[in-house]
Write a structure and sequence with these properties.
By secondary structure, the protein is mainly alpha-helical. It is built from four helices and no strands.
Length: about 100
């Protein structure tokens, strides 16, 4: 009887440890996902595109397309123009006419 109780207790303890490990993994994964979304989210892109488009003649259009490119590429080249080698995805995006999409 004692041996059976010990095995049951051991099995329950093992099950609780497995459940705890799974929950910890889920919490860590959720935290990492939230962090990466914050980095790529609108605050990151808004600030980077604000700098990129600060001297644009059509700021509204520049901010729109820069934001689209930032969301897809997770980066914006430094400065107000050029430097696109810093972000190949941003550099290589094209619009329907085959010209550069990203300002």
């Amino acid at each position: 009887m004692t041996s059976m109780m010990t095995k049951t207790t051991l099995a329950m303890t093992t099950l609780l440890l497995i459940i705890s490990a799974l929950l910890a993994t889920i919490v860590v994964a959720a935290a990492e996902s939230t962090m990466s979304n914050d980095i790529i989210g609108s605050n990151f892109c808004d600030s980077k595109c604000g700098v990129r488009c600060s001297k644009a003649g059509r700021q509204d259009r520049c901010l729109k397309y820069c934001g689209i490119c930032c969301q897809k590429c997770n980066c914006v080249p430094s400065g107000t123009s050029g430097n696109k080698a810093e972000c190949p995805c941003y550099r290589d995006m094209k619009n329907s006419k085959g010209t550069p999409k990203c300002p």
